[in-house]
Design goal:
The chain is 32% helix and 14% strand. The protein is an alpha/beta fold. A hairpin with a 2-residue loop joins strand 17 and strand 18.
């Protein structure tokens, strides 16, 4: 990798890309040239996955053959001259010893994908696929499987604003057990299925029903929100596909998360790193750099102890273990004091630019054991860096080379859509259709949609004098979920007479278990059906509920507006 030249000379500063196998750190304040240098590091000729919290790594896709003005024009601000900018780039790259053939080669060999999890502005990402059963090799490795479960559940907990300890928090433990049990049973769960399993988990009681229900309702609230729909569409988090090379092409996948809130960012990054870690554990050893992970503006995702967001544990584990299989990690930040010391100490290559404070310099130089370089780092100019390699020669100062891609700054939503629509920027993975996504599974596992009891018979409903309505299978806890749900909607109809003689109908839905935590809700049109859905199975009503006596009492309670009384702590359906 050609990083630049030493000040006052034409001597190039180069580093073998295999050095990144020991991981790298790029440090520098705003205006130091950190982004430009980072983009050159990830143009190392191996598959790259980038996490982009700021939104400017899409610039890596702006590589223009010939550096012609017409290629720059769509991306240049209205008040700037595209021809002047193109001339500036031609002069800058030539001054760094980069000819047009080299730029054309990069454009031809890079397969670039710009993905926007949680948004359809670019190419969306189906995060529900990240809950699917992992490959058999991961399941066979109990440590790897439990690590993936922990990372996945930590992300889900973060999504609902819960900072849960994987070892001590009962909610985390229950959800982890539900997910691991589903995978062990050969199921291929999605988030909706997990919500139902939380209500009636396939194991002995551990968490009280009310607590399980509260957790299920919080998750269900996320799933039911219209803003969550983009999370269910797009490409799967399939590391094999994202890192697969094709003849003459090297994939570079940028996950732009600038549009997400903090909880959503941690949720996605936790899932991504969990899958990356599981992928790395299934790879054979390698002396060469096989792939690279680049995390820009990483501050906040791997903070010092005791903070532990969902991304921290899998990221630190990657830096500790992944080098053995040829997976390198490069972290970039302008706030090194906000990084956990374990991340700093696991990096073998450092590019240190201008830093904001004396505390930042002290933290960095102490981390590499080079306090004597404080004066050198303090005097660095913009686009100057100190290169330090833990095992590879003396530290050297260099001027970073001119970027081969156009550095326009962060992408707006309009620019992301413009970029993705360009035929030259066809993504590495195309979003699957809804039919394909719902029927396919990378592991060949069975679907985990809720199913009826293992009974080959379909008995008729028991005789009753009570009018029946049947809950639509797509409705549960006010969310629209696919799959079967064994249940019957109990409706209460109050008919107070009005002065005009028109009957006013007040309908209620009563959920089991009967308790204050699940009050009756107004019914929405289409929630219940007059006839049972196809494949319905019936189970007996609880012994305490006599159809004539108890249902009449329930009707009266609902009509009077009084809360229903808890009669059973068991979840059942009828």
């Amino acid at each position: 990798m050609y990083l630049g030249r030493q000040p006052g000379s034409d001597e190039d500063v180069k580093v073998k890309n295999s050095r990144l196998k020991t991981h790298g750190i790029v440090l520098g304040m705003t205006g130091s040239g950190k982004t430009g240098l980072s983009l050159e590091l990830i143009s190392s000729g191996v598959p790259v996955i980038c996490i982009d919290p700021k939104g400017d790594l899409g610039n890596l896709g702006l590589v223009f053959k010939g550096l012609a003005a017409e290629a720059f024009a769509p991306w240049v601000p209205p008040k700037e001259d595209a021809e002047a900018l193109a001339a500036q780039w031609r002069k800058g790259t030539a001054g760094s010893g980069i000819d047009l053939d080299r730029i054309a080669h990069l454009a031809d060999t890079m397969s670039f994908g710009l993905y926007t999890p949680g948004s359809e502005t670019g190419v969306p990402v189906n995060v529900l696929g990240a809950l699917r059963r992992p490959p058999a090799a991961t399941l066979a490795d109990s440590e790897a499987c439990r690590g993936l479960v922990q990372d996945t559940v930590s992300g889900l907990m973060g999504l609902i604003g819960k900072k849960a300890d994987p070892v001590k928090d009962p909610n985390h433990i229950v959800m982890s057990t539900v997910l691991e049990t589903a995978w062990t049973n050969g199921e291929d769960p999605d988030l909706e299925a997990l919500v139902l399993k939380l209500v009636d988990p396939p194991f002995k009681k551990f968490l009280p029903p009310d607590d399980r229900m509260e957790l299920a309702m919080k998750l269900n609230g996320v799933v039911a929100a219209p803003s969550f729909k983009p999370w269910t569409k797009g490409i799967p988090l399939d590391m094999d596909a994202l890192l697969a090379t094709s003849p003459g092409k090297t994939p570079v996948s940028v996950f732009n998360i600038a549009h997400l809130n903090e909880d959503q960012r941690h949720f996605f990054v936790g899932l991504l790193f969990g899958r990356l870690l599981a992928w790395s554990r299934a790879q054979p050893g390698s002396d060469d750099l096989r792939a690279l992970v680049f995390f820009d503006e990483v501050a906040g995702y791997v903070p010092p102890y005791p903070k532990s967001p969902p991304s921290k544990t899998p990221l630190l584990t990657l830096m500790k273990q992944a080098r053995a299989v040829g997976l390198g990690v490069v972290l970039a930040t302008q706030n090194p004091i906000d990084l956990d010391y374990k991340a700093l100490s696991n990096a073998g290559l450092w590019c240190i630019g201008r830093l904001q404070t004396k505390q930042d310099r002290e933290r960095v130089l102490k981390g590499i054991g080079q306090q004597k370089l404080d004066d050198t780092v303090r005097k660095l100019e913009p686009r100057q860096f100190l290169l330090y390699q833990a095992k590879g020669g003396d530290p050297v100062v260099f001027n970073s080379r001119y970027a081969m891609c156009y550095l326009k700054g962060p992408f707006t939503r309009v620019e992301i859509a413009q970029f993705v629509e360009c035929p030259l920027h066809r993504p590495i993975l195309e979003p699957a259709s809804s039919d394909t996504a719902s029927s396919s599974s990378g592991s060949g596992a069975t679907s985990s949609k809720p199913t009826a009891p293992n009974d080959d018979t379909l008995p008729s409903p028991p005789p009753s004098k009570v009018d029946r309505s049947f809950l639509d299978p797509k409705v549960v806890f006010s969310a629209r979920l696919e799959g079967a749900f064994e249940g019957r909607a109990f409706e209460d109809v109050a008919e107070p007479k009005r002065e005009d003689g028109v009957i006013a109908v007040d309908e209620h839905r009563i959920w089991f278990p009967l308790g204050d935590s699940l009050p009756s809700e107004p019914r929405r049109e289409g929630d219940v059906l007059p006839m049972p859905p196809s494949g319905t199975r019936y189970v007996s009503l609880p012994e305490w509920l006599d159809e004539t006596k108890e249902l009449s009492a329930l009707k009266k309670q609902a009509a009077d507006g009084r809360p229903l009384q808890q009669r059973s702590d068991s979840l059942f359906t009828a």
